[in-house]
Recover the amino acids of this structure.
């Protein structure tokens, strides 16, 4: 990206994070902590701390995008090789497929909830939810097949829609529960520090894991930055603030559901289904549906479609890559990933953070420690150059990645090492980054 085409300023990056943060998964991230037993201030503090932590690798990986004007798939060639870069790209793509499935499941449930409001006789239908899920999946597939330009007119309104839905829920349920005072007075269910830490540590890892994908491909955005200061300040102002503010809505609404219904209802779609005003509830669900469709295609299809296409451009087109994304999204069984707050946070978010943390560790160690921020941009785009390594693969990076993933996820198989899994992103990041730096620096000697 030539300097004259880099036009994004601080405001653009702050606005980008507002648009990306105001979504259903953010809401459910916060509401899941309340459902797990945290008080409102413990939940907000955990989310804020997690986003301040993930901001660090975000800004570190963003630096190369701004300095050299290169996107993530090009930057990662410096560490993994011009062909080996497909390995982290595909891992990231698989995570995006999971998110595609989750968003599609949410959209399908929104359709079903709306139909139940309009036709209460459907409430007992066991197949209705599944039919709506596949209908919404087909809508997503149709948009992909026709091209994302078919929903260009929706760009920019997803965040306002979701903000309106969140505020509507907040206004309605806090009014029913007697105001914010009773809602926010609910105590934590954790009575000892040990009990709190057992829940807090994997929750914090989940908060970091929530943006672990973007922490890798942030150069895709910062390549357009006017300056390092513009992207760094914009992200530092936008990410923690947007996530914390919208998370507060999820925290307050879920806390109010405990007061009102005697149980924490962490799913906003299920909560909207309890509205006794069909017109208002239907409007909110339609807004949620449109925003989910737009977010799903823009955030969870474009990137993996390109990643799959890059594996074999002659065989896999962007459309075919999108179809692969859709099929894998179903195969990852989003209904199980969203079965409850524990599966969402401790299974999905913490689990995939163990795959992406090691990639971030290798990338950052390569750029800042091994290369001291110096890249040969021309060689990033050609074979048999500096980043050819061995047949296009840097096997030191592959070894570091594998070791990092094993260390991060071994706690799933070895109960005594469960604590490693609870810190999956962190231990994977440190292990892979440390091993990579040692292998590369040792090879120079």
């Amino acid at each position: 990206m030539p300097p004259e085409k880099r036009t994004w300023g601080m405001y653009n990056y702050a606005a980008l994070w507002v648009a990306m943060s105001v979504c259903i998964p953010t809401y459910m991230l916060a509401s899941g902590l309340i459902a797990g037993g945290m008080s409102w201030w413990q939940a907000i503090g955990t989310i804020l701390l997690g986003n301040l932590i993930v901001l660090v690798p975000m800004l570190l990986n963003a630096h190369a995008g701004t300095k050299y004007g290169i996107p993530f798939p090009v930057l990662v060639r410096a560490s993994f090789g011009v062909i080996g870069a497909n390995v982290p790209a595909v891992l990231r793509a698989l995570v995006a497929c999971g998110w595609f499935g989750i968003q599609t499941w949410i959209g399908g449930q929104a359709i079903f909830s709306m139909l139940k409001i309009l036709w209460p006789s459907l409430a007992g239908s066991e197949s209705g939810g599944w039919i709506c899920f596949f209908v919404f999946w087909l809508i997503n597939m149709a948009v992909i097949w026709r091209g994302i330009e078919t929903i260009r007119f929706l760009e920019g309104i997803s965040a306002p829609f979701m903000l309106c839905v969140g505020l509507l829920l907040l206004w309605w349920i806090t009014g029913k529960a007697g105001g914010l005072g009773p809602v926010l007075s609910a105590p934590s269910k954790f009575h000892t520090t040990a009990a709190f830490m057992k829940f807090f540590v994997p929750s914090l890892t989940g908060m970091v894991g929530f943006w672990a994908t973007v922490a890798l491909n942030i150069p895709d955005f910062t390549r357009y930055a006017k300056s390092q200061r513009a992207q760094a300040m914009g992200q530092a102002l936008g990410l923690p603030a947007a996530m914390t503010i919208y998370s507060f809505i999820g925290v307050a609404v879920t806390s109010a559901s405990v007061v009102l219904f005697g149980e924490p209802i962490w799913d906003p779609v299920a909560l909207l289904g309890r509205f006794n005003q069909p017109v208002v509830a239907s409007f909110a669900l339609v807004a949620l549906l449109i925003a989910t469709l737009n977010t799903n295609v823009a955030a969870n299809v474009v990137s993996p479609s390109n990643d799959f296409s890059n594996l074999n451009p002659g065989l896999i087109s962007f459309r075919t890559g999108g179809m692969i994304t859709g099929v894998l999204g179903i195969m990852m069984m989003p209904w199980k990933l969203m079965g409850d707050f524990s599966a969402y946070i401790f299974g999905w978010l913490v689990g995939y953070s163990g795959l992406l943390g090691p990639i971030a560790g290798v990338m950052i160690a390569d750029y800042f420690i091994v290369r001291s921020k110096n890249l040969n941009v021309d060689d990033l785009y050609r074979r048999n150059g500096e980043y050819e390594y061995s047949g296009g693969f840097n096997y030191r990076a592959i070894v570091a990645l594998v070791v990092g993933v094993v260390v991060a996820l071994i706690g799933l198989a070895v109960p005594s090492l469960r604590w490693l899994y609870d810190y999956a992103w962190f231990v994977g990041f440190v292990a892979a980054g440390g091993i990579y730096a040692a292998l590369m620096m040792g090879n120079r000697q």
Notes: The chain has 23 helices and no strands. The two ends are 35 Å apart (CA to CA). Residues 3-444 form a domain with the Hydantoin permease fold (CATH 1.10.4160.10).
